[in-house]
Structures are given as structure tokens and as C-alpha cells.
Amino acid sequence: MKLRSLASALAATVALPLGVAQATDLEVTHWWTSGGEAAAVAELAKAFDATGNKWVDGAIAGSGGTARPIMISRITGGDPMGATQFNHGRQAQELVEAGLMRDLTDVATRENWKEIVKPASLLDSCTIEGKIYCAPVNIHSWQWLWLSNAAFKQAGVPVPKNWDEFVAAAPALEKAGIVPLALGGQPWQSSGAFDVLIVAVAGKDVFEKVFAQKDEEVAAGPEIAKVFKAADDARRMAKGSNVQDWNQATNLVITGKAGGQIMGDWAQGEFQVAGQKAGVDYTCLPGLGLNEVLATGGDAFYFPLLEDEEKSKAQEALASTLLKPETQVAFNLKKGSLPVRGDVDLATANDCMRKGLDILAKGSVIQWTDQLLSPDSQKQKEDLFSEFFANPSMTPEDAQKRFADIIAAAD
């Protein structure tokens, strides 16, 4: 479907409100509050409003780590929203097992989600005991290094082609008064950066042995020791960041105050809002330029069980709308993520999105840690790397021992 045809397709949905008998408000909670994220979520709201219902935005400031406990507390406390964002994986598993989330199998079967959602692991992450409990909306990958072309020009060195060249360029950046690596202070950022380094430095097989197979010996071994050496380099390079939120760190790259940032492809939304062009103002290196492997995690919407019949109908309308081709295109172009449908036309995708699409087409993908580890194991890992990046007296060797212990006990 060509992009100019999508407007017509979207307009047609106004006249076909998916069987909704009466317009109703539906509160949708999420943690998309940065400039790029807000622009993207507005596309979801517009598409849902076109069904005859109304999207009531329940944005929660902060990261997923801040928002999820609030969302879970509302659902378990008897004050459920109409729909809520979680990441693909196990974050809502206990809510499903407690009978608090709606089964979407009928909607998914009617609309053939098993055929259109690619890769299949996305829908697998929504499936518990054979029933589908969430609607995937995008594929987000963490494995990117974003570089400021202006910062490297100011420092008088070429834009790096990989992580090793980036580390080698750090002294020149520092001499020019530029922070080499932008890194926010939230624990999920340092933990995520380390996970990216595992794939880039040690490779896909080692990553899967550690996180999928929970292999303690590999976690304690020489390949992961190399990763901790790279993390030690990253720790030194990020020393002057002095920001908290991920989008503040991205802004350091956008403004040329930092050379680069390890961050997921959602950072693209911030570059887009700032009017910067991929390949001209900034450079993106999937797999940090070392191993072009992308995780196929991302975001999905879950629907708490509601007694209100009209709101239940609106839930079905929203679940359906999220997977429509026109919604997938409009949302993901602004979010910087990839669509979960392989049959949509992304003719206007930028240079970085095309790189991601090419890697996805080659099948060079992995499941991400949200899909492979329980929330408790993830929290332990976040605590470790928050301390490691904040405390230069913690040696890579000591941190690796703690990491191996976490993997040994992981579920």
C-alpha cells in the first residue's frame, strides 16, 4: 500500500466504526512523554478517535520503570484503565495469571494476527497458555550507537564506523570540550547499554547463552570479561554526562555537546522533532558497527478486564486499530521503530530505519532481555549496572562476579 493511499484508507475507517454502537471514552496509559514519543502517540489517538470512540491520554512521566508500578497498582487495586502499554515479554504475566487482563484471542483470530505479525516471537510474547493477551504495536531495538556529525567535525576526527573507532576518538572529543558518551542516570539506561555491548562485542551466540540459557559459566568467562572491559571504557567516556532522562542524553548528541549515545531506535523520534536528518546531521550504527544484530522487542498494549460493556467494545476497536496498516505506518514513522506488519509500505523511511529493515529482512534478530528475564532478574541487573557506572571504584572483575551470580539465579 502506497503512503498516499493510506490517508484514504484511514478516512474510510471513520465511516466504518468497527461495530461501535456508541462513542465512549477509553483511558490509555503509557510512558511516552518525550517530544518524539508524544508526536507518535498522537497518531494512535487520531486513528482510535476515527472509530467513533475517544482516546483519553493517560501519559505517566518518567520511564517504564516509573510507570509500570503505577499501572500495575491501579489494575490490582480495582481502578483499571481501558488499555495500557507494556514491553513485549513478561511484564504483565502475573496480571494475566491473576485473571485481570482481557483475552484478545477472538480479535486476533478474526483479524489474522498470526499471519501478519512478524516476527512470530512478538505475538508469542503476548501468548500465555495458548491465549493472546496483547496487541503488539512496534519493533524496538536497543542495538544502536547514535553519533553527532557536528561533534566529530569540531573535534577534528572522522565520524567513527564502529565502537572501537568511537573509543579511540574519545580523547579528541574531550580535548574539544565534548562529552564522548551521553548516558542518563536511570538504571535501565546503563543496564541496557551493557546488554547492547554484549551483542556487539561478544556476539549473538554468547548473548543467547547468557540470557536465554542462563549459562553461569559463560557469564563468568572470558568473552563476558571483554564486554566488561568495553563497559569500563563506556563508563569513563560517560563521566561528564550529568543528565537523568534518556531524551536529555539524546539532546546532548543533537546539540553536539556529546559525541554519541547507546540508545534504542526510539531516539530517532527526538532527532526528527529537532529537524535533523539521518546521514547528514547524525550517523547511526546498528550493532555499534561491530555485529549488526537487532532485538525484536518493543511495545504492546494490554487490556484490563472491564465490566462496562461499551468500554469493552471500545477495547476491541482499539486492539483492531493498532494493527491496521495505516496506523502502523503513521505511528512507527514518528516513533523511529519498525512496524509489526511486514506488508506495509515505508517509502519515506529514513536512512537509519532502512538499515533496521534490512537487518530484519536478513533475519539477524534476537529476543531482548525483557522477553528472556523476569522483572525481578531485570531489576537486579539494573541495580548492578547503575552502581557500576556510578562508582568507578567497582572493578570490572568484581562487577562480572556479581553479574554471573544474577544469571545463575535468573528466572
Automatic annotation (TrEMBL):
Keywords: Periplasm, Signal, Sugar transport, Transport. Part of a binding-protein-dependent transport system for a sugar. InterPro entries: Bact_solute-bd_prot1, SBP. Belongs to the bacterial solute-binding protein 1 family. This is Probable sugar-binding periplasmic protein. The keyword Coiled coil does not apply. Its main location: periplasm. It comes from Rhizobium fredii (Sinorhizobium fredii).
